[in-house]
Amino acid sequence: MADKALLSSQLGSPSTALPRHRNRPLAHIARGIAVLSMLLLSFQIFHHLSPRNFRNDGHCMRPETETGTLVVQSLSRCPAQNKVSPVARPDITEKNVNQLFKSDSFQDLSVQRLSGAIQVPTETFEDLGRLGEDKRWDVFYSFEKYLRKTFPLLHEKLHLELVNEHGLLYTWQGSDEQLKPILLMAHQDTVPVAADTLSEWKYPPYSGHFDGQFIYGRGSQDCKNNLIAILSSITSLLDQDFVPRRTVVLSFGFDEETSGFQYGAARLSKRITDIWGPDSFAIIVDEGQTLIVDRFGRSFGIPQVSERGYFDLEVTVHIPGGHSSIPPAHTSIGILAQAVTTLENAAEANFPLELRTDNPFYTLLQCAAEDPSTEMPNELRDAIGDPQGTSQIVKLLSHDPIIKSLFHTTQAVTIFQGGNKANALPAFANGLINYRVSSTETVGQVREKLINTLKPVADKFGLKFTAGPKPGVGEPPAEVPEYTLALSWNNAALESSPVTSTDSPTWSALSGVIKHVFDEPVDGGDVTVAPMQIIGNTDTRYYWDLSPQIYRFGPGRDRHNDGPGGIHDVNEHVPIEVHLEAILFFHEFIRVFDEADLE
Questions:
Q1: Nearest Cα to 163, choosing from 290, 41, 263, 277?
Q2: Residue 540: which domain range?
Q3: DSSP one-letter code for 255
Q4: Would you tell me how many other CB atoms lie within 10 Å of the CB of residue 501?
Q5: pLDDT at residue 380 above 60?
Q6: Signal peptide span per the entry (predicted)?
Q7: Which end of the chain is less packed: N or C, by CB atoms within 10 Å?
Q8: Whether 284 and 430 share a structural domain
Q9: Could you give the CA distance from residue 446 to residue 437 in angstroms, rounded to a whole number?
Q10: What does the alpha-carbon distance between residue 515 and residue 529 come to, in Å, rounded to a whole number?
Q11: How far apart are CA 318 and CA 465, in angstroms?
């Protein structure tokens, strides 16, 4: 994931990869493009700053003065920054953390486990038929078989329930039923590999090839890395006869990479609710952006505490076709082009920039700015320190498109289709516009703005104007009559998520274990943990009622990556260091939360 600094002299272009799906239905292609482009954008803000050290009590220690004394400044604007390490079972720390996880044999085993998972091609497609009817779903039988074979002790000790055939729901029963359980998530499925890209892969996409540094293959980053790391960490604990006090639940869906289906995580969340009830989990952790990033000359841990909403608008123009030698003044494509241009010209008015103090990004900026030793421009630092300075922050940062996207609902025209022959007038033209909805407004409010923006276009060309939802999955498509400009949307629209509070013992435990695993005091690389908003969307959309404490991240240090990692693109790969760090993190996360007083 590309780095990006704060001001124009430091800004670099984000390195993103585009999806390679072709000849797919309009609405289905859209999700691949929009989700990918946002998923690949990580935290790209802080860069080129002086190193500094942090004490474990959450106070900033500036460099020594001439007298040798230290100036200590409280990180008053940051949430809890205390390192939290497991206390019980120091033998596990010695045998697993200090010995096993650092051994060459464990690295070899970890490569073998993840490589084998990649070799099971768990692709999902937008044109999949119903579960039980389309044989392409059957690959998940093979993946389940692989997991059973690879982690026999785990499958002996944990209870596995198959939810809706392929959803994997594991329960590691704790000894204290009064403690709320923890829930770890991942998804089994991957995006497909386009046949016309095979020649571009350095190694075959389902080989799981390890070159000594990276493990290659579809799903290596998204997100078999997390799934295998979770199972590996639990297996290592089971090997040491660890018995949790707090129940651990694992939920692995199988349709995260598709739109329209609700076979995996949606059914899993319902089953979990049936078993445990609402608001029953102490914490939920799912995939997200890389957790540890180096900015401002130091390390930041950025668990993502919220997601923006998601909404696709399809615009269809239907007028009579005919021979191109007798054209009207405006073809369907021409009218659609004017509709799209109208939307783009109105975007600034429809979606003004705004930074509210409850935006997680604002908290992160405060954490970064309060240390006077950093090389942040004074004008920006002053604006961040001013309670009334949010508009100035927007002014200073909004020239960068990645940062700007955090300040408002974004609009992106991603698909434009019409016509298939040079001498034929197209009767239909379709466009799809993707919206990432800011937490400052609802999907309904966005729709209303778009209706008000586009109705005058229909009036201008004497067309009937319609707007409404599409039929559900499995229902016949709605017909658009001639002389109509129609707006439609599917049921995949998603409101912005609740924002997880950092003023909680759960945050304290999470930030504590992040610092425990990733602090590097010898190298001056202690981690400051601050909340962030994820740019894409995850399966946690179905789990909001199960806990107010939901976090998204990929455990590991961004410095090990050599770019975006090929997520959804050719040459997807993950550094072995990142995979090993993920195993260590989940191992210690389970232990710390087993001891934490959260109730």
A1: 263
A2: 90-191+201-307+499-595
A3: -
A4: 13
A5: yes
A6: none
A7: C
A8: no
A9: 8
A10: 8
A11: 11
> Is pLDDT of 530 > 60?
yes
Just list the catalytic residues: 189, 256
Cα–Cα distance, 513 to 117 (Å, whole number): 28
* Total domain count, the chain: 2
Beta strands, E only, 72-166:
72-74, 159-163
Residue 523: predicted pLDDT: 60
Residue 27 is assigned to a structural domain of this protein: no
458 shares a domain with 314: yes
Say yes or no: 234 and 117 in one domain. yes
Tokens 């959260």, residue? 598
Looking at the structure, do residues 414 and 540 belong to the same domain, yes or no?
Answer: no
Q: Are residues 230 and 212 in the same domain?
A: yes
- The answer to whether 187 is a known ligand-binding residue is yes
> Was 28 annotated as part of a binding site?
no
The answer to the question of whether 108 is labelled as a binding residue is: no
CA-CA distance, 33 to 279, in Å (whole number)?
Answer: 34
| Measured distance between the N- and C-terminal CA atoms of the chain, rounded to whole angstroms | 37
Q: Residue 10 is encoded by which pair of tokens?
A: 């430091």
pLDDT tens digit string along 239-251? 999 999 999 999 9
What does the mean pLDDT of the chain come to? 87
Question: Are 282 and 593 in contact, with CB atoms under 8 Å apart?
Answer: yes
Closest among 90, 229, 96, 91 to 154, alpha carbons compared: 229
322 and 279, same domain (yes or no): no
Residue 211 labelled as part of a binding site? no
Better pLDDT: 201 or 24: 201
- Does the structure show a pLDDT above 80 at 393? yes
Task: Write down the pTM of the prediction.
Answer: 0.84
> How far apart, in whole angstroms, are the C-alpha atoms of residue 484 and residue 467?
11
Sign of torsion over alpha carbons 556, 562, 568, 570: negative
Tokens of 503: 């003023």
**pLDDT for the residue 100:** 99
Helix (H) or strand (E) holding 444: helix 443-460
Residue 43 has pLDDT above 60, yes or no: no
